[in-house]
Amino acid sequence: MKDYIEQRALEIGEYIIKSNSTVREAAKKFGISKSTVHTVLH
Length: 42
Hints:
This protein is an all-alpha fold. The protein has helices spanning 2-19, 23-30, 34-41.
């Protein structure tokens, strides 16, 4: 389970950096809430 969380964090972080997107945009792209994006990247 931990590997999945780590992989998701890397994917979201990479997406935000490469696309220069906001947390809101990343949440929409990955189909999760803004709170989840913050939690995953924290």
